[in-house]
Amino acid sequence: MSAHPDKFDVSETDIADLKGSESFDGDVQMGGFAVSTEELIIVKAELATSYPEQLNYLTDAYILSVASKPYSKDTSIRRPLEYTIQKLEALLKWREESGAIEVFELLELSKKSIGQAREDGCSDVDYDKAVKLANTLNTNSVYVHGYDIEGRPVIWLRCNRKPWMIPDVAAEVALYILLSDFAISVMPEGITDFVVVSDSSSPPPPSPSFLVSTLKGVVKGYPDRLKMLHSAPMGSIMTTVVNLLVPLMPGTLGSKLHLMQEKTAMYATLAEVLAEGVKDIPTFFGGDCDHDRFYPQEGLAKEQDFEALGDGVLMFDFPGMHARQLAMKESFEKKK
């Protein structure tokens, strides 16, 4: 880590990727414009030409959400259709180049022993990627649990569970891709974005390469997906991280950061944001909801389906997370 944590090397290419392209304006939140069925068909046809295998990743609701936003160069009009197509093509291109399309395959691979993987024709290189992804999951430092009052999935970040120094930036980025894609997969009908809540107690020192890679992922791979990031408490390390990232953020992305100095402020925020109000507030923010029952700081969850883990290195209760989230989704939809 540099002696000056507020200064780190960011390549000109990275800066151009983040701020130089008007197509990544960070989602102007000023209301939506109408998009016709014919225009939706045109967008999907264009995307199907270049990325036919990935088209199912984009729901009609999400395409309409992206297309309906105000144009960054003139917010009194809607984004031009060509602009939306370019934005979504860039998203799908990023998914291919970043390896996002293979993260769920790596998750399944991590449930196998190396012997089983080799018997199935898996290369040692791919198995190593799977092991590294599983190791990041096993910290239980990031997971999806519950919804906000509008039905957006909530991604929880437990900074104090992160290693002091990130051993593998690519694996850590893959972790966020995996859980972001999982959150997208369990969105109720019509929902297109998610919320992130960060317990920012005792975070590790900032890793420049990880921070830039993560920000590029949000901007390129998940445009218009982040509704809000709530973070508390804001100590010196997290303040440094924010100071490093905000100058690199495009458009209005910085306005989606809700930073609180004290956990008491987070309690009040979550009481208003979460689907079940105070009942959903976890113990680490002063509530009664015990996340550690499912996502312990170390080892296996007590109610975990051990057979579903297989013979590999994965300990994170992904099947349990999936089942719980679907049950909460069903409960939320019944109350609508």
Q: What can you see in these coordinates?
A:
43% of the residues lie in helices and 10% in strands. The chain is an alpha/beta fold. It folds into two domains: 23-98, no CATH class; 137-300 and 317-335, Phosphatidylinositol Transfer Protein Sec14p (3-Layer(aba) Sandwich), CATH 3.40.525. The protein has a five-stranded mixed beta sheet, with helices on both faces. A two-stranded antiparallel sheet has the order 1-2. The longest helix has 18 residues, at 81-98. GO terms for molecular function: phosphatidylinositol transfer activity. It comes from Triparma columacea. This is CRAL-TRIO domain-containing protein. InterPro entries: CRAL-TRIO_dom (IPR001251), CRAL-TRIO_dom_sf (IPR036865), PI_Transfer_CRAL-TRIO (IPR052578).
